[in-house]
Amino acid sequence: MQRDAITPLLIGTVVLAAIAAGLAITGGPGSARAEKRDMARLADLRTLAAFVRCVAQTTGQVPETLTPTEDCGTDLPLTDRTSQSPYRYEALSETSFRLCAAFERPELITEYDMAGASWQPERGCFALSEP
To answer: What Cα–Cα distance (Å) separates residue 131 from each residue in 17, 116, 128?
Structure first.
């Protein structure tokens, strides 16, 4: 190989290695799409948590089911926009409840993503209490 051809080949190899390393570190476009879908799920769970808290403040206890009400909201995101599977809700007591979703990247979600919640990554759930 000629000496003039080695330098561009070496530069090209370094550039390709840098691109591959960048994709490996960030996870690439597929990972970014999964994170975006998880953020939409998290936003839906926040909406549902606000609904449950509204019902609890109105009635004195968390609801048994996520049934829309005129006072607290009728347009509830009850199903995952991507998979169409229902979000899971469980009343744990008169003042506590659990909201769950099938997150694609649960390792990126923390309890700080939903104020006052306890994050249960193995279940994809947030446990919350109404003060």
So the answer is: 53, 10, 10
Q: Tell me how many degrees the CA angle 38-44-47 measures, rounded to the nearest 5.
A: 145
Task: Give yes or no for a contact between 52 and 97, defined as CB atoms under 8 angstroms apart.
Answer: yes
**Per-residue pLDDT tens over the stretch 16-48:** 656 655 555 655 777 889 999 999 999 999 999
Give, as one character, the DSSP assignment of residue 23: H
pTM score, two decimals? 0.79
Distance in angstroms (rounded) separating the CA atoms of residues 62 and 57: 8
Q: Count CA atoms closer than 13 A to 126's CA, side-chain side.
A: 26
